[in-house]
Amino acid sequence: MTPIITVRNLTKTFKVFHDHKGYFGALRNLFDRKFKLIEAVYQINFTITAGELVGYIGPNGAGKSTTIKMLTGLLVPTSGELRVNGYIPWKDRRKYVKYIGAVFGQRTTLWWDLPVCDSLNLIKHIYEIEETQFRKNLGIFREILDLDTFMETPVRSLSLGQRMRADLCAALLHDPTLVFLDEPTIGLDVVAKQRIRDFIQFINQEKHTTILLTTHDISDVAKLCERVIIIDLGKILFDGKLETLLKTFGGRRLLSVDFAEAYLKPVLENAEIISIQGSKVLYSFERDVVSASNLINQLSTKYRILDLEVHDQPIEDTIREIYEKQLLYNQPHAEKNFTS
Amino acid sequence: MQRNLTLLHRLINIQIRSQLQYPFSFFMEILGSALIQSFFFISFALVIVRFEEIGGWNLGEVAFIWGMTEFSFGLMDMIFSGFDYDYFGPLIRLGRFDQLLLRPVNITLQVLGSRFVLRRIGKIFQGAVIFLFGLSQVGVNWTPLRIIYIPILIISQVLFFGSLFIIGATTTFWTMERLEILNIFTYGGSEIMSYPMHIFPRAIRLIFTYIVPAIFLSYFPAVFILEKTDPLNAPRIVSFIAPLVSLILLWIALRFWRYGIKNYQSSGS
Amino acid sequence: MKSFFAIVRVSFRRQLTYRAANLSGLATNLMFGFFRAAVLVALYQDRANVNGLSIQGAITYAGLTQALIGFLSFFNWYEMMHSVYDGQVGSDLLKPQNFFFYWLGIDSGRAFGSFLIRSLPLFLVFSLFFEIVSPQTLLQGLAFTVSLILSHLISFGWRFLVNLAAFWTPNALGIGRFAFGLSWTFSGFFFPLALFPEWLARFSRATPFGASVYIPIEVCLNISQGTELIQGLFIQVFWALALLLVDHIILSLGIRKLVIQGG
């Protein structure tokens, strides 16, 4: 399988200036600038092969956007090797950019005052898309993304969901081999999110477009990505199957019980009460410490139950724990990659 | 090159179309702005009646350079509006400049095409009227050199002001603060160029000769065309170097601009 | 009344925080002051006095007009308009203060702050370069202060009126540009009214624009004294009150329209 993104010992260090304050601060800044060095990204390594759908996640300030900026050619690395699609992004910008697409959840790539159709037409000319290819792609995207309802509307009047769909269409019209999606479902309702996710999956499967997804929405990652890369404090903490990550850390399970009566303190050994609502109680327990059957036995001997349910801890909580408790740092091989 | 120009043409067309959406209100705005702009000159014209002349130049002669400067500045402002500090600053601050970098098109072209203010036609028209008024008042000895120099001078002035705009926009890569002081060179420069420059104190003249070479774009050429005596006693050749000066300044501006983009890519936003 | 001064105080403090960008702005204003002074000196040549305005007075005028720009928000002020367009006006109208006085409070704080950090330093530095004319007597100085306050009220009254257009049209910005342009033409900002033909000078001084820019200048330059001084202040008071009245009427019409028709 051909690697499409190769990252070797990539580092980006920023100089952050401390500005002098006060009335003459601006003047003093001209002569004496204090600064400190920040390693936003430090010696990261990974390889992405063509056709993959990879999630690139990490807490705020982890170095995600710095990495993406280097990958898209917006930022020049301080050191290390970076090859995407055979190009060095920042060096061969104009040529390189023809083969990638990018969607940023926070801002639009389209022209604010123009109707969507005019924006898309401009895209056609900017990327020199052939008429037949343009029509074909537009036709497909119009249908899947349901763009017809707002094709003539100026971009500034679109709702967030509509704008996202228009941006996605615009980013893919020129059949890029690689697409960067940054927060593509942010602020959207459940139905809209699903529609975007379906589209992303469609693009990846039908067109074999490589997709790098950066998001805070873990369910996006769970539903779309087999492989996930976690970055924090500028270093890669994990690179592998999401499954593996959850097996290692997603040990917590939840047990919800519907009691026959409202017990005051329905305590169970090795299980923690999360919430009590009348006769409904939610427990959480560690998979390694106690088994579900053990707990069910305890329940049946001590209390009268109407119904119960066992499920795994939601992925969001697992990931959040990993960030907060820096679980990956406690692992013996925290600094290396987990590859699977 | 051909493709780039077509794209630029397209971008500009789109803006013109959207600005002409309400033709009546647009026309009213132009009329209004042309009227208002002309009041500065009309005030001057009414005032100079008491004095008959300023620095040895009469109203017609002042109108000649005043009108030409307004015309050129308006033309520049229409074309180079993408580099207008007030517009480009927010472009950088809001991260929209990244969008431009992600497209397979020349950056300078994209910035040029990002804003085309048709409304400036008001200033251009007003400048032309004042210039033509000046022409009608002065008796120019029309040699072929003088005739051909006028459009060359106008183009040079447009490039001159455009360069200043480009330099101003480039500074936003380094400072998020609004550098009002740059207005001295653009708007101040155009105001100074509207008068015969020898009336200004030496310090100001030096700034606009050696730092921002405005004097070569307006005063000296006008001295030649209008056959005025030059109390500064400059060598005759300086009247003809306007195109050279503007091209050099443009070259400097574009190099600075390229440098600014490179720096932006190394230091992030 | 207390809440009014509270608003003024907050806005004043906010204006004071714009210190950093200020130095650059001060230099710009100073330069333009030099330009305008140089043009007037060139016009005057050897004349010591033209129509009651001495050459020193003309130079002082060049500095004063620059100093007044920030104080009177002379070139643009579209804040109220923007609040209508982005919907902020809704919550503003729900505040217990009278809408007009709310904005007057904000603008007054801004004006006073701008006066302290911009107008005053600018004029002081300007006076280091030139021999300037200033109020000769305490009474004249007092009258100048009063005149400046009235100028601010007139300027606000006009700017507020212009911004009111936002209640009726989405294109109020275009109207605003034109209206501001109009205010520059008859204000005596480009050239001293004393140098204009008599009929134009008289007309301009009678407009709210000339009243807010040129009348205080005349007081500062000691040109306007005695009965003339009283007359000038009277014109200012007239315009301040007239604009206040018109603003109130149009504002209530605007609010009614807003409430009935929605945003």
Summarize the structure in words:
The complex is a heterotrimer of chains A (340), B (269) and C (263). Chain A is α/β, with parallel strands linked by helices. Chain A has two domains: 3-247, P-loop containing nucleotide triphosphate hydrolases (Rossmann fold), CATH 3.40.50; 251-312, 2-Layer Sandwich (Alpha-Beta Plaits). Chain A is 34% helix and 30% strand. Chain A contains twelve helices and 13 strands. In chain A, the strands form three sheets. A six-stranded mixed β-sheet of chain A has the order 5-6-7-3-8-9, with helices on both faces. In chain A, strands 11-12-10-13 form a four-stranded antiparallel β-sheet, with helices on one face. In chain A, helix 5 (131-145) packs antiparallel against helix 6 (160-172). The longest helix of chain A has 17 residues, at 190-206. The radius of gyration of chain A is 25 Å and the shape is globular. In chain A, 36% of the residues are buried. The longest helix of chain B has 29 residues, at 23-51. Helix content of chain B is 71%, strand content 0%. Chain B has one domain (27-267). With 263 residues, chain C is mainly alpha-helical. In chain C, 76% of the residues lie in helices and 2% in strands. Chain C has helices at residues 2-16, 19-44, 55-71, 79-85, 88-94, 99-129, 138-163, 172-185, 198-206, 208-220, 226-261; strands spanning 49-50, 53-54. In chain C, strand 1 and strand 2 form a beta hairpin. The longest helix of chain C is centred in the last third of the chain and has 36 residues, at 226-261. Chain C is globular. The mean pLDDT of chain C is 90. Chain B binds chain C through residues 22, 25, 28-29, 32-33, 35-37, 39-40, 43-44, 46-51, 54-55, 177-181, 183-184, 188, 191-192, 195, 199-201, 204, and chain C through 20-21, 24-25, 27-28, 31-32, 34-35, 38-39, 41-45, 50-51, 171, 174, 177-178, 181-182, 184-185, 190-191, 195-197, 200.
> Between the first and last Cα atoms of chain A, what is the distance in angstroms?
16 Å
> What is the class of the largest domain in chain A in the CATH system?
Alpha Beta
Could you describe the largest sheet of chain A, including whether it forms a barrel? 6 strands, mixed
Q: What gyration radius of chain B follows from the Cα positions, in whole Å? A: 20 Å
Number of helices of chain B: 12
